[in-house]
Amino acid sequence: MSGAATSMAKHSIEGRVVSRAGDAVVLAIPGTDYRLHLAVEAGVAADERGELRGSIEAEAKRVDVVGSGGKFVEPVIGRPRRVQGRIVGGDARLGAIVVDAGFGPIVCRLTDLRQGLGDFSTGQLVAFDVMRGARLVAVDH
Q1: Are 100 and 12 within 8 A, CB to CB?
Q2: Which are the contacts of 139, defined by CB distance < 8 A and separation ≥ 6?
């Protein structure tokens, strides 16, 4: 993928924590019905209204370029299992593509050793399964 690394802070989302248990949260995405179950780092904290800003990071199984369809995360409620969206950037250091999944970006590390950033380009519509452990990472504003 041409275009070197992109700022992960640029690829953050805002959400509201509707519940938290240990190292996991349920994150509500404003303007949607999404309630994503994500792991969190200890330092990730919501403000007094339960709102926070962070980056969703996931490990993608084999990524497929698709010819049509929308942008989404499945299921709407639960841990992310499938993502489809447009590539909006990449990070060579992380070996990750950044995919706009409709409500915002998800940083997706490539795990299939047969695939690399050079196999993809900005604007492509891609789909992939997500490995367990998708997480919310705090980002600087």
Answers
A1: no
A2: 8, 9, 12, 53, 54, 55
Per-residue pLDDT of the chain (141 residues; tens, 9 = 90+): 544 444 555 778 999 999 988 889 999 999 999 999 999 876 677 777 888 888 999 999 999 999 999 999 999 999 999 999 999 999 888 899 999 999 999 999 999 999 999 999 999 999 999 999 999 987 754
**Facing residues of 28 across strands?**
16, 35
DSSP label of 46: -
Structure tokens at 26: 């349920």
Q: How many Å apart are CA 36 and CA 135, to the nearest integer?
A: 10
Closest CA to 135 of 24, 15, 39: 39
Confirm if 101 and 85 have CB atoms less than 8 A apart. yes
Buried b (16+ CB within 10 A) or exposed e, 36-46: bbbbbeeebeb
